[in-house]
Amino acid sequence: MKKWTNDPGSDGGRCVSGKLPGAELQRRQLARLFLVVAAAGSVEIFPTICEAKIVQLERAVVRFAAPEIGGMATPEFIFERELSFEARLEALADVGFEAKPSEAYRERHVVVALERHIAETLLARLPIDPEPTRAVLDRQTGAARVQLIQAVGGPKALANAELAEGMSVSELARILRRRARASLYLDQMVAPMLEPSSSELRAAHRAAPLPLRSQPFANVVESVRRWYVGRRLAASASAFYQNARSRLQVTFL
């Protein structure tokens, strides 16, 4: 089991493996630093030698590895802009938080976005039996988009988040496809959750946030379905991440 280290020569960052007492603290320290950088609008920039212009480079903030993705031989990276975008999405979906231009998200949103990104990456790489067809994956990707739009408050809110972080159409499509593949694994290999029963939806309607629960069930049944399924998928991804911590190696760069 690896231990936390502040040694600059120890692989260029801090690494966690297993349920270490400092893991939550280190994630929160990363989140605080990330918020400072995001608030300042800082981007790694380097002038070229031969011409007078600035080249913007994408900066990786997290490296992680697990057996599901080939171990340390094939690590995955999370980049600053993508994590910032995902934190914005978590903040917009947080009914208890009002995003402002000066504070698009808080520390907790960065932590949740980080853990969900890792969980969905691992889940998306796990085998599904039977393997979903291209049509099924495309349909679930479309469902993930509609679900996300509802969660963040509409297409304009999603478009504004994309614009704020400079996310391209293809980058958002990659996130949605990863989320779709992860949700199909959870539904087929863990527990059915993409097609809740009528009784489940009626119970969800009573627990749903306003204005869903204040409207007749028949008028909002599809919105309730998306809200309920989205909440279950997020909770399942979080549970998967917690169970995977013992085999995860995460380095904050």
Q: Concise description?
A:
It is built from 8 helices and 6 strands. It has helices at 23-40, 80-93, 107-125, 134-152, 155-165, 169-190, 198-207, 217-244; strands spanning 14-17, 45-47, 54-56, 60-65, 76-79, 249-252.
Helix content: 55-70%
Q: How many β-strand runs?
A: 6
The averaged pLDDT comes out at 85
**Shape, principal axes of CA atoms:** globular
Sheet bearing the most strands, described? 4 strands, antiparallel
Approximate strand percentage? 5-15%
Low-confidence stretches: 1-20, 40-49
Q: Whole-number radius of gyration?
A: 19 Å
Order of H and E elements: EHEEEEHHHHHHHE
Report the span from N to C terminus.
20 Å
- Structural class, from helix and strand content? alpha+beta
Discrete helix count: 8
Q: Strand order, biggest sheet?
A: 1-6-4-5
Descriptive overview:
There is one protein chain. Strand 2 (45-47) and strand 3 form a beta hairpin. Helix 2 packs antiparallel against helix 5, helix 3 packs across helix 8 and helix 4 packs across helix 6 (169-190). The protein has 253 residues and is α+β, with helices and mostly antiparallel strands. The strands form 2 sheets. Strands 1-6-4-5 form a 4-stranded antiparallel β-sheet. A two-stranded antiparallel ribbon has the order 2-3. The longest helix has 28 residues, at 217-244. It is globular. It contains 8 helices and 6 strands; from the N terminus they run βαββββαααααααβ. The chain has helices spanning 23-40, 80-93, 107-125, 134-152, 155-165, 169-190, 198-207, 217-244; strands at 14-17, 45-47, 54-56, 60-65, 76-79, 249-252.
